[in-house]
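Blinded run. Sample ID left blank on purpose so nobody reads anything into the name before looking at the predicted structure. Input follows.
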Amino acid sequence: MGFGRFHVMLFGIMGSASIIEAMEIMLLAVLSPEIRCEWRLDDWQVALVSTMVFFGFMLCGVVCGYVADRYGRWTVVCGGFMWGAYFSLLTSFSPTYGWFIFLRSMVGCGVAATSQGFVLKTEFIPSKYRGLLLPLASVFWMAGSVLIIVLGMTVVPTLGWRWMIRISIVPSVVLILLFKFIPESARFQVSVGNVRGAMETLEWIARLNNTQLPPGVLREPVVKERGQCSVLVSSTFRRTSLLLWYTWFVASFSYYGSVLGSSELLEKNLLCVTNADPHTHVRHDQEGAPCYCVPFTHQDYGTLLISCLGEVALIPLNIGLLSVVGRKHSMAVVQVLSAAFFMLINVCTTMFGFTVLLFLLRSVVAMNFNIVYIYTAEVYPTAVRSIGLGVCTSFSRIGGMIAPFIAQVLMSASVLLALLPFAVACLLCAVCTMLLPIETRGRALLQNS
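Blinded prediction complete.
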């Protein structure tokens, strides 16, 4: 079947799913100053918004993984787009803070479903191209982050944050229309005994790629125990699963800690900079006011924008590490680097120096998240790949739920104490990564356990 136009189309459409997820996550960082002033919120209430999104993701992650293994990846991913867009739209009409956090938790459920798109994409891409193409998906995540920041710069000051949310769902609507061009996973179809459907899918892909299927008959035993969580803790995968669950926890904990922490540092100007401008002093003078209503400036948006670009700056390094040293060692390297940059953020420097450090931090934590996704999709067999990813993402959202209370609440008390947990977690995770028993570089995807 080879590699051709279908895989380019698949990469483009499914990669765009990362745009949607990134927009929903970065939305929280951009909206923090706005909702704080809208409803006169304390630090813990602002942090609770992010926590509720990840709570919805955590609850729905396992359910979506189970449904994807039982009934198909395509149904779950497409349903997730529609669910997320609907509740995101409703969020823009929230009359109270309580309604806002409830509706954002529902959006989290939709994001949990769309994350199964990574499994669908992985199962179609040939093994020799996965190490090259899957890291490039970070470009789409970066595009989503940049898009929501640009909307914040242009829409929030003029039309307000509610219209920014309404405009932000347009990519979801477009993607729902494009999703009809993506077929159900042929690997899943074979696992449920639908060999005819799998052959039709593969023949269509071959025609689109202007090639032919190899001669022979497609034969594969039906996998009856699909979506069984017990497989994840069986003797074959127990050690892998336990270590991966902590790795996912740290990946989310560190990533969203960097995103929300940078937003908090800029909003309250807790930076230890040596060239503070007049705007800095204005913020400090207002710090004791009953409502800390200081919106982001264009300089703040610019800093967030530059840090987002860091998520793709080290893609060549990511691809090189995956190809040369493999998945396990790549994760260990970027986790150690993440710990180092978290601590360097606390060093007194210029605003330019802080921007560079934030740029590098976002680069390595994004690399870590990307490698963890790749490794998880490769290590589990087709029969439990979606439920395996679903359980892992649920553990990651526990990290996402905790991160706001450290990055947005503890940060106000002590920047050093807020950054230290992220650094320590990354160092411990590097050790755990080296204990993983399986290296998946160059290995074909397993069909069953």
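Unblinding after everyone has recorded impressions. Confidence is low (pLDDT under 50) at residues 273-291.
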